[in-house]
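Regression test case RT-17, inverse folding.

Input:
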């Protein structure tokens, strides 16, 4: 038997270190070639680290949340044959938090950890050890907290036993069908607490948001838009072409409006390097579409939106959103935007204050559509209204230009034929 050491790979783009986000294996696990061992986080994306060999995990080189240098030992695997070590010792970073140096693992095999008692499953319910932390995304943990459910009691149906939203629903359904469950439990006092380590994507989001608000001179501009006409056009196009070309949401129309408006306001389609004091205006319109995923906010990029039709934009937006939500978006798909569009959909509220996606200088925020009585040509009529809540970097964009830019978008949306008149 030998030891195969896997080092933190060079992910490219000049990256010297990455954050270890999550382990998918533990010491003692048997792994196969191409099995994902860990997730690591760069400045731009989550990257899977697969195993190049079959074998047994004998040591892990770090803890989730730890920043590791490229080339440092990630994991050691016992394999058939000689392995890839020339000596009988394999360097592995010590597991104790704050350990300052690299230790050596002797050739003798580590003693196996005492096995946990097998979890007892009853339908969607499972009995775990009190100190065992079930796998679940932050969104699922919050959902469970809101519902008053202890996650350790819920059986997970996701990969590696991860608890999903539907598992919570199954747990609730089981509880509702159990006549012995006390109704008063919903009103019982609670004193439990949960500490969630800020690592991986959540840490990157926090850093970016803090950096953006500290470095840019944010200001927001909110404008009300009548979307009645464009919603009628969208419904007509979906009825006529939806079956063959796919359904259109409002987002492709907004992307088209951005592209047309930017022809007269190129200063909005720009990046500002505040260290070099250089503004770069771009002809290509690469629209970032802010997308919520289980690991947090991600911004996949619709490249060359200026060259896309409505349906082409719609298809690309859908593809990128699904990739981001499933954690499959590549680094290239999550970088390079020139202006960002953010929307909370039906939960969009009345007004929001989007945070800039640096180094961009503009972000367009979409709020929800509501029907309201409006005065049109002296008559009170019901119209579909929506607010655009947009933010700009005042170091680069003047207030008057921002207002005129949003007014241009408003005119295009309220008179949708102008979106396609050249």
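Golden output:
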């Amino acid at each position: 038997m030998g030891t195969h050491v896997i080092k933190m790979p060079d992910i490219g783009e000049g990256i010297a270190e990455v954050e270890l986000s999550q382990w998918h294996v533990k010491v003692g696990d048997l792994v196969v070639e191409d099995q994902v061992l860990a997730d690591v986080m760069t400045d731009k994306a989550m990257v899977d680290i697969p195993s190049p060999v079959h074998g047994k995990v004998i040591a892990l080189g770090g803890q989730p949340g730890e920043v590791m240098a490229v080339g440092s030992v990630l994991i050691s695997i016992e394999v058939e044959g000689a392995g890839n070590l020339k000596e009988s010792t394999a360097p592995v970073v010590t597991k104790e938090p704050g350990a300052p140096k690299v230790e050596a693992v002797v050739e003798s095999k580590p003693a196996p950890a005492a096995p946990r008692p097998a979890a007892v499953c009853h339908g969607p319910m499972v009995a775990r050890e009190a100190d065992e932390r079930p796998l679940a995304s932050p969104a699922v943990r919050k959902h469970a907290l809101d519902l008053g459910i202890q996650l350790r009691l819920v059986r997970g149906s996701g990969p590696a036993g991860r608890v999903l939203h539907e598992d919570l629903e199954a747990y609730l359904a089981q509880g509702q069908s159990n006549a012995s469950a006390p109704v008063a439990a919903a009103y019982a006092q609670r004193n439990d607490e949960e500490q969630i380590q800020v690592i991986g994507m959540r840490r990157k989001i926090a850093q970016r948001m803090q950096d953006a608000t500290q470095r840019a001179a944010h200001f927001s501009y909110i404008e009300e838009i009548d979307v009645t006409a464009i919603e009628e056009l969208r419904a007509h196009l979906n009825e006529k072409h939806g079956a063959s070309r796919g359904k259109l949401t409002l987002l492709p129309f907004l992307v088209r409006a951005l592209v047309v408006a930017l022809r007269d306001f190129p200063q909005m389609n720009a990046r500002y390097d505040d260290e070099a004091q250089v503004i770069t205006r771009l002809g290509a319109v690469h629209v970032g579409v802010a997308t919520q995923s289980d690991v947090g906010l991600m911004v996949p990029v619709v490249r060359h939106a200026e060259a896309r039709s409505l349906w082409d934009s719609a298809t690309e937006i859908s593809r990128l959103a699904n990739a981001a939500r499933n954690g499959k978006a590549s680094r290239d798909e999550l970088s390079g935007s020139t202006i960002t569009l953010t929307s909370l959909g039906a939960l969009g509220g009345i007004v929001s204050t989007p945070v800039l996606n640096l180094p961009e200088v503009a972000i367009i925020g979409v709020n929800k559509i509501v029907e309201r009585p409006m005065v049109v040509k002296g008559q009170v009529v019901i119209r579909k209204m929506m607010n655009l809540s947009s933010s700009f970097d005042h170091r680069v964009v003047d207030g008057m230009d921002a207002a005129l830019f949003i007014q241009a978008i408003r005119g295009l949306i309220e008179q949708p034929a102008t979106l396609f008149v050249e």
